[in-house]
Amino acid sequence: MKPCDRWRESLADFALGAPADPDLAEHLPKCASCSVRLARMQSLTLEIARGIQQLAVAEPDVDASARILAEVGSRAAPSRWWRPPSRTIGAAFAAAAFLAASLGISWRHRAQREETERALSAAAKISRWKPPTRELLRSPYDGLLKGAPRLGETFYRLDTGVFGTGPSARGAKEKQKP
Fold first, then answer.
1. Contact at 8 Å (CB) between 31 and 4?
2. Does residue 177 form part of some domain?
């Protein structure tokens, strides 16, 4: 603890206007740091006091609010609300009518466009339609009926390797040769 720390509270009280302690009065002429600290505290106290005085001067008058309300009340019309002139009402009505008409027209155009799209899609489906009679009259054997069948190739597969003359017999003989 520094020797001047014990005077800290007494210095603050003295700077705020309390009477000086007799021991503090003896210490101040001897200690320069406590004197400087006291002078700094007193200057801060004076600045705070000036700021409070400026705030008190700038504060509005107590009767000002009543005077302002009376002034506002005297200027206002007794019970009249804002009423637009007849031209404004007419313009608003015309704008609303125009908006309603344009919405109706756009709604009708959209409905017509949807109907056209439905008709075109139906026409496209009809153009891709194939009659089922063509498919029903087609036979799975149409390929056979267009040409003459060769006996043994189409109906019955004959394995000629059994007799030793076909291609499978030749391949088997070549594999057996070392």
1. yes
2. no
